[in-house]
Every structure is written in C-alpha cells, then in structure tokens.
Amino acid sequence: MPESKTKQSAPARDFAGSMTIGELSKRFSLSRSTLLYYDSIGLLKPSARSKANYRRYTQEDAGRLERICMYRQMGLSMVSIGEILKSPKSSARNILEKRLLALAKEICRLREQQHMIIRMLGDRSLRKRIPVLDREGWVSLLRACGLDEDGMHKWHQEFEKLSPLLHQEFLEGLGISGKEIEVIRQWSQT
After folding, report:
1. Which domain holds residue 70?
2. Residue 101: inside a domain, yes or no?
3. Which of 35, 58, 77 is the last residue of a domain?
4. What is the pLDDT along the chain (190 residues), one digit of tens a residue?
5. How does DSSP assign the chain, residue by residue?
6. What is the pTM of this model?
7. Would residue 115 count as lying in a domain?
8. CA 82 – CA 110 distance, rounded (Å)
9. What gap in Å lies between CA 21 and CA 17, rounded to an integer?
C-alpha cells in the first residue's frame, strides 16, 4: 500500500542502493512510526521517493539517523537534536555541555538519594551490596593505600587545584554535608 503523498524531498525516482522505511527501521531497530515521526518534525526526511511514492533513504540518511539515535541515547530532546543537526559545531558543543552539566547534577542528586535511603534503612551491609562509596569508605581506602593525615591533605589540595568543581562533586557524592564540604575545600586551599 503506497504511503500518502507528502512534500517530496527530491524528484520521484528509484535510487539504486537506497532503503525503504522498513529496511531502515530494521537496521536501527526502530519502529516505522518513529521514522514517520522524525520525518513529520523534519529530523529525517527521505532523500527521494520511488515512482510509487514510497520513501527512499540513502546511506547519508542512515548516517544522519545514526547521529539522531546517538543523541537520543545521550538523553537530548528532539528540539536539541534538531538544533545540533542544523547548527555549526559550536552550537552543538553548547547543547552537549548543557546536557553534560544536567547529567552531573542528576548523578549528584541520585547519589544523595542513595545515601539518604541507606541512612534511613540503617543497614550498613547495603554498602557492600550497592555500589555506594561514602566518606568512611573513602577514608579507609586512602588509609589502606598508606596515606596519613598529611597525605590526605595533599591529596585534597591537588584535587582542589586540578578541578575545584569536580572536587566539590566528588565530596557531595560521598554524602558529605554542604557545611563540611566547605570546611574540607577551605582546608584543601591551605
């Protein structure tokens, strides 16, 4: 059954080596309706139409779909993906940096939730079963590696010097309170 007539991307003709919507959907494990949706919002238009008005996709279209799928895996919105595909690389960088920052904040919130749940349950054995490192575990690890107070101080100083923001996020990830993090970071700057 031919697809309904829509705005054509190129003159109606058969492309040697091109793919149908079904072939493209199988190749990327996507539903046909997903590809139709991408077409309707302008993310992925077919390069041509067959004489029978079927959508035909080229290898270039498949490459574009591969990028779309990669951006979707990164959690980008369709609007952001459209902006990246239409814009110069500098715009893409800005969008990706914003996403990276949002992910960092989400990871931090999730770590806080893990620590809160473990504290509420009062079950220290959860720390062995769930991959959560808290302050106590980190200090034990540093001591096991031979670091004393001076060694830990130097470690924090280097971390703070190398990346203050990452040092902050690391300390938050250990479930340390904001006031205590402030003290540790000031201590690290001496």
Report:
1. 21-77
2. no
3. 77
4. 444 444 444 444 445 678 999 999 999 999 999 999 999 999 999 999 988 999 999 999 999 999 999 999 999 999 999 999 988 777 788 899 899 888 888 887 888 888 788 888 888 777 777 777 778 888 888 899 999 999 999 999 999 999 998 898 888 888 888 899 999 999 999 8
5. -PPPP---SS-B-PPTT-B-HHHHHHHTT--HHHHHHHHHTTSS--SEE-TT--EEB-HHHHHHHHHHHHHHHTT--HHHHHHHHHS-HHHHHHHHHHHHHHHHHHHHHHHHHHHHHHHHHT-TTHHHHTT---HHHHHHHHHHTT--HHHHHHHHHHHHHH-HHHHHHHHHHTT--HHHHHHHHHHHT-
6. 0.63
7. no
8. 29
9. 13
Residue 67 in tokens: 């990028």
The tokens describing 64, both together, are: 């574009």
**Among 77, 93, 121, which residue terminates a domain?**
77
